[in-house]
Design a protein that fits this description.
- This protein is an all-alpha fold.
- The protein has two domains: 1-52, Homeodomain-like (Arc Repressor Mutant, subunit A, Orthogonal Bundle); 56-193, Tetracycline Repressor, domain 2 (Orthogonal Bundle), CATH 1.10.357.10.
- The protein has helices at 2-28, 35-41, 46-50, 56-75, 84-98, 102-114, 123-146, 156-176, 182-193.
- Helix 1 (2-28) packs across helix 2 (35-41), helix 1 crosses helix 4 and helix 5 runs antiparallel to helix 9.
- The radius of gyration is 20 Å and the shape is elongated.
- Residues 34-53 bind DNA.
- Keywords: DNA-binding, Transcription, Transcription regulation.
- Pfam families: TetR_N.
- Residues 11-71 form the HTH tetR-type domain.
- This is TetR/AcrR family transcriptional regulator.
Amino acid sequence: MARRGAYAKGVAKREEILEAALDVIAREGWHGASVKELADAVGLSQAGLLHYFDSKDELFTAILRKRDEVDSRRFGEVTGTESLPAVREGFVGIVRHNAQVPGLVQLFSRLAVEAGDPSHPAHDYFVERSAALRDMFTQALAGEQEAGRVSPVVDPETLARLVQAVSDGMQLQWLQDPTVDMAATVDAAFTLLGMVGPAGIEPTTSTV
């Protein structure tokens, strides 16, 4: 029982750390979110904080996972079985919210680059997250194509990758120029999905 109680306390403390870290990074930005800042926010030493995580990178990866969990609660968990309008509303809502938490966007973008190394602690997180997002878009787009509301000129998985590319690209543009409206541009990409195929081109499955 003592071991089970200690484990439960450890899980609760880890959750407290992640919740506090989201607030600190959102408020102070990526550069202000040192391990010391995060430790101070929960009344721990730096060593005490890292006791709950294997490394600093593992800590920051866990923070991103917690952000996704919080976003799912805030905007609704979208699986792709919903209609494209529902997927669109939820996803654009998250993009719009991201503009209010630049520190978390900075963290995400920095780790996304570093996670290109398969040995990086965040590598699996980004691979799995990207695949899940793409699958969500693919399912919703396939349903819209079957209903005739989205052009079948390009296959749904390729369209899903294009939406991802627009979202990722706009995030980088926004980091360089905060006056850019990320949400409006991503929303415009969804609008384009409903346009008919190019004149004179027979609908076909893309081989891209």
